[in-house]
Amino acid sequence: MLPCLPQPTILPPGHVSHFRRSIFTVPVELAQHILSFCHPWDVATFSQTSRAAYALVYHPTDQYLWRQLFAAYPFDSPHSIADIACKREKVDWKGELTSRMKVERVLFDGPMTSSDKQHVLRTLVTVIEDSSWAASQYRSDCNIKWLKRLVQHSSLLHNIYSVPETQDDAQDYARLRAYLALSVIDDRHNMPAHMKLLDRRDYSRAYVYNLLNYTAENNWGPIRQDGSVDWIHAEHLVNVVALNIRELPGNWAKTRPPTCMEGPRTSSFSSIRDFDDWAGVEGTR
């Protein structure tokens, strides 16, 4: 037999506000643990209900809540991100998560201002670079799944392929496009998209095969004078390789170069090789 439930206590009007505030009388650690099971957007909504809620979320004494929210979203393991940032200062989990949530809001809801555009570009480049490291070291692909969702369901591709560029963000745009490696619609029945792809192929070929773009000043490659990567040149190289492969006969037409959108791959060879077998081909005959 189930035990009888106690009768609810009816408080006088003067005690109602005190009763509502009692949620904040529990230990802070317990309140943060409860919030860690919520979606980040729900936590943000909760923080707007009162000053106490705002302080609990945005001014905690440690980063436990934000670290748990980051891992539960999910993004790649906090341990892998911490290792990536081991040479930097202490990881700002709140900054990492809110930065990515802002990218989602801008790409899915819009509109995108100039400052938003810069934020989206820089954040996505950072996530892609961290994802490659996490995938190779931890076989983790949470960030990659998040990127795929943005590419497939948001306005990301429209913005990086169609929005006019300025001189300041041209390198950032090209860098992101090079990482995505032409993640565009390649449908011959969709003539506008197909024609854009052909135009991009012709433009990239003209750039790559122009010998004037290879000088001693850029080390005969996609290098800028300050030693950094010339991502505009690198993007054209990616375009030419990817699109040239598609024009080859047979099964080559279905071949795609690896991109940042792929998950970690297992490898059958050992990471330790003799110097004489640096390419890992011994015993393959």
From TrEMBL:
Gene3D superfamilies: 1.20.1280.50. It comes from the Eukaryota. It holds the Pfam family F-box-like. PROSITE patterns: FBOX. Transmembrane segments: none annotated. Residues 20-69 form the F-box domain. CDD domains: F-box_SF. InterPro entries: F-box-like_dom_sf, F-box_dom. This is F-box domain-containing protein. It comes from Psilocybe cubensis (Psychedelic mushroom). The lineage of its organism: Eukaryota, Fungi, Dikarya, Basidiomycota, Agaricomycotina.
